[in-house]
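chain below, 423 aa
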Amino acid sequence: MKSRREFLSAGAAMGVFAATNGWAALGSDSRPASKSCSAACSITELNERIARRDFRDITKDMLPTPCLVLDLDLFNANVKQLADTAKANGIQARPHVKVHKSVNVARQQMADGAIGLSCSTIAEAELFSDAGLKGMLWTKQPVGKNNTQRAIALSKKDPTFLFVSDDAQVLDWVDEAAAANKAKVRILVSVYAGLARQGVEAGEPALKLAKRVDGSKHMQFEGFMAYSGNAAHVKGFEARKKASMEVLAGVRESKELALKAGLPVNIMSGGSTGTYNIDHETGLSELQAATYVFMDTAYFTVGGSDGDMKRYNDFKPALTVLTTVDSQYHPNLISTDYGAKAMARSSDIVKGMPWLGVGNGGAEYGALTWKDGEQHPKLGDLVEIYPTSLDMSTNVFDRYYIAQGDRIVDVWPIMGRGGAAQR
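prediction:
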């Protein structure tokens, strides 16, 4: 039987192989063996060493589970892939931070050519701006006194900050607050693109809002945002391209009307991981792709531009949840510490052993199941699992353990989850 270290190293290799040769290839017979933890991996000493940034001899089997492990080489390759493709296609990248919530990740994205970052909350915008990162686009409109005042304050502090609106009432509130604070804010009009959660109707309604922004001394119209999230998961590259072209026709019309009305349209923002190599043809000028940095199982089977209808090979699965098998007393079922609190889902995939089913048995209890005769981990073994929804998974952890093979080489904090000042 292989040692745990051999198993984990093999698992990392299997993950790369699977990403390039198909998820069925994950069916390796690799299986971990238990390895006792020495005093060197006590949680107290581990945290002290991390605080000192002393990562010598720290390996995956020393980590507290469940935890998030990021393969550094695959992550770097993913960031480069999107950056190179965007540059080749003549479109800018403004990646969304909702998946990673990490300044370390964002800095790598910016270093590879991103012009800024997109965010879901004003807290994220503040946190990343405070870290010195510029070009934050808040993709929701400020509603309520708290959000409005914070958006105005950040606009004054950081003139590169932008946000969206899809409603004349919100624009009136923003205009009033900006005037009272002697501020000028930069705004994109959010246009409906298939997701019934925000976005004004395309065409004349969008133009009317754009004129409202442009007519104010305290607001500056920058362009339009149209996020077509549903199109990103359409299976098959050609079908996904067709869906994207159709759903973004409205924002293209809105831009034409704005230009005819004499309004500048500096930005056409949207796009996603599934359409990163399509969006330059849909009329968008910048991408808000997010999942590509780590990848999750929701994208594994949408198909790529290479004609493969079952696999999406453009980006590699770089992030896993590391879990420990902690009970084995029932037929064809073992318990793990990857449960509901850690966002375990049945659509997760076990790295190296895809025949295992993933479930959760409670707040702190996970489950792995299999059919008769198939191999499975044993009590005390470590298992790595690809999560289904990165937005949710990263929101319940506070750090990434950065790995090269079995070695832990860094720890990156996850930001902006708790506390009134961060929400």
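The chain has eleven helices and 17 strands. The first helix runs from residue 4 to 21.
thats it, cya
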